[in-house]
Amino acid sequence: MDLILLGFSTLTAPLVLLTLVIGVVAGMIVGSIPGINDNIAFAVFIPFSFSMPPEQALALMVGVYCAAATGGAIPAIMIKVPGTASSLLTALDGNAMARKGAAGKALSIALTSSVVGGILSSIVLLLFAPSLAQVALRFGYVENFALAILGLSSVVGLLRGAVIKGAIAAVIGLLVANVGFSPVTGFPRYTFDNVNLIEGIPFVPLLVGLFGVAAMLELMVDIVKERHAGTKPSGLPEIGSMRLPGKLIRRLLPIWGGSAAIGNLIGMLPGAGMLMAIFLAYDQAARRFRRRFEGKPGEAEWGEGVPEGIAAPEAANNAVTASSMVPLLSLGIPGNSTSALFIGALAIHGMVPGPLLFTQHGHIAWMIIVAFLAANLIMWPIAYGVIKTVSQTIFAIPKQAMVGVIALLCLMGAYSDGANVFNMWVAVVAGIVAYSMRLAGIPLGPAILGLVLGPQLEASLANSLSISQGNWLVFFDPVSHPISAGMMLVSLALWIVPMLMSRRERASAK
Amino acid sequence: MSQIISEKRPGQRSSDVWIGLVLLAVGGAAAWMASGFDDASRPYPLALSVLMMLLGAVLSARALLGGGEDQSFTQQARILLPAAAVLGFWILALSNGLGYVVPTFAMEFAFMWLCGIRGPGRAALYAGLVTGVSYAIFVGLLDVRLPASHLPWLF
Question: Mean pLDDT throughout B14-18?
Fold first, then answer.
């Protein structure tokens, strides 16, 4: 309780609280701009945090992270263009409801669902992250190696049907993490005699490139394709009343609970990502709707403006935001790509996520946790204000004008990390590589995990083999290292089960 | 969203074959470089390089045996190359003393044009606005130290 109060008192310092509010407003506005996903929103705000004290910088980032996922629902409902990938499914029923003249109701369902999902997820973060960190503090080299393998396996294993490409991505990330001094001997590797690479590829520009620049290129390709196809945007629906009747709230309560539970579970799996959570939650909601409401008088068809179709993905996507911080804050493993950017935000202020964050920077770690709860609590009124004022103006900004703006923000953000032009080249090359990987069907998630976990993996492997006199079975020893043995077995299962499942699916399809 | 998986035409090799070959080459180069590292720093990157070569070979082999995907890179390349060139010229101009304002205005104008904003006046207006606001934010507000300029009177 004392620690929660410590986080609360750090957060309630006037300037810290103000930056959290600014973060929520900015995240909501940026998230509601079509084409700017939560990764870009986060990447462009990292440079703004350089000059701030760590408490303010991280409060800003928490606000942006939570609000961007919610803000994405606004254009999804109003113009059927998801502001963020997490609002992909919201666009279906949300826009259909808006076109029937109930845009206010659709927006209200989306916002309330996001807030409920976010609050439940913040409670999960509050309960699990510190206790998991306590366990992780007891980890030695052997357990750290097994943990890194588990982190990599969890994301590779979850890519059903694309295990080879997932493994390729992980190896790319691990190999790139080798650039710079060896963590074991200090020998410079893959530096090409470039002093900028001596300490490895600069992490913040790399992340800005992988997410921001790649997304900018993707947006540009989409715009050019739309131009060639001659697609024209349609007019905006009227917002109208945003009041939710009590009967509808009671009807959506089980959806909120179920979807938030799915979001929390998926969010805590390293690398599982938000999309998986929203698809699972959407599927569960569809089954429930078909069982209870489909075909009844006054009920729309699924996908044609059903409240559950908005509530489920929105509750799930915001449930992922805080729960994805559980593995990041407690174990140092990012739960999804956006939370990986948090590593950069913490690194700028000399902090490393993981169990030591709670001992070395306890007030910051607890402030981040409390800030997630606070951000979700203040989200509803802010979102309401943004919808009524700024959103209408935002939809008037031509998407074409956003490409250059995103490019500039990303590259200046990369440059600001040390005022080094080399960082800009890193961001551009990383962006092109990330976009090419996407085209080739090679997922980015495992590569990010490889980049983050690479140095830890090598150092803990070398030290484990050193203390065990080269015994590779040390990681599977159930007597002296039961946690490691357990994690290695789970890792094996994460590789084997999806392969068996896809083989069975192929066999049954034949 | 922008994944275009084209239908396989007779005689067309899957793009996975080429991706596998690229990985094989990159892995080979990384392994060759790793062979020059000291004894304690070598095994880990060498193992990863060999693993990359193996995965590349598996990907190519699988595609040759009828699996894999066909992905058209040429259409995207036609859009992406000009964008990469604009970014490259902007960085070069910035780092070679042309200041912030002129290169940034030119970059923004080029992106507006590439994305289909027609009418030089409209594109110049947007580009000017973005350049001015970004200068105010990064230099005025965030105090970012820009590369030295040979044209200080032009910012």
Answer: 84
Contact A77, A107 (CB under 8 A): yes
Tokens of A393: 């103006």
CB contact under 8 A, B91 and A47: no
Q: Which of A51, A171, A411 sits opposite B51 (nearest CB)?
A: A171
Q: What pLDDT is stored for residue B7 in this prediction?
A: 41
Amino acid identity of residue A101, one-letter, is G
Do the beta carbons of residue A423 and residue A222 sit within 8 Å?
A: no
CA distance A48 to chain B (A): 7
Rounded-to-integer distance, Cα A147 and Cα A163, Å: 20
Residue-wise pLDDT for A414-423, tens only, equals 887 778 899 9
Token look-up 């981040």 returns A368
Strands (E), A109-192: 180-181, 188-189
- Cα(A283)–Cα(A302) distance, rounded to whole angstroms? 11
Q: Report the distance separating Cα A124 and Cα A90, nearest Å.
A: 24
Strand pairing partners for A188? A181
Residue A390 token pair:
């700024």
> Which stretches in chain A have pLDDT values below 70?
1, 34-38, 47, 81-85, 137, 154-161, 231-236, 269-273, 335-337, 391-392, 394-396, 510
Number of H-type helices and E-type strands within chain B: 5, 0
CA distance A211 to B18: 25
B65 token code pair: 């045996």
- Name residue, tokens 């190359």: B81
Tokens (6 digits) for A494? 């994460």
**Alpha-carbon span B111 to A169, nearest angstrom:** 30
Tokens coding A86: 């997490």
pLDDT for res A228? 78
Angle at B112 between CA B108 and CA B113, to 5 degrees: 115
Question: What dihedral do alpha carbons A445, A448, A453, A457 form, nearest 10°?
Answer: 80
Q: Do B108 and A404 touch (CB under 8 A)?
A: yes
CB contact under 8 A, A432 and B108: no
3-state secondary structure at position B71: strand
Share of chain B above pLDDT 90, in %: 41
Min Cα separation A417/chain B (Å): 9
Q: pTM for the complete prediction?
A: 0.74
In b/e form, how buried is each residue of A160-199, taking b as 16+ CB within 10 angstroms? eebbbbbbbbbbbbbbbbbbbbbbbeeebbbbeeeebbee
How many angstroms away from the CA of B8 is the closest CA of chain A? 15
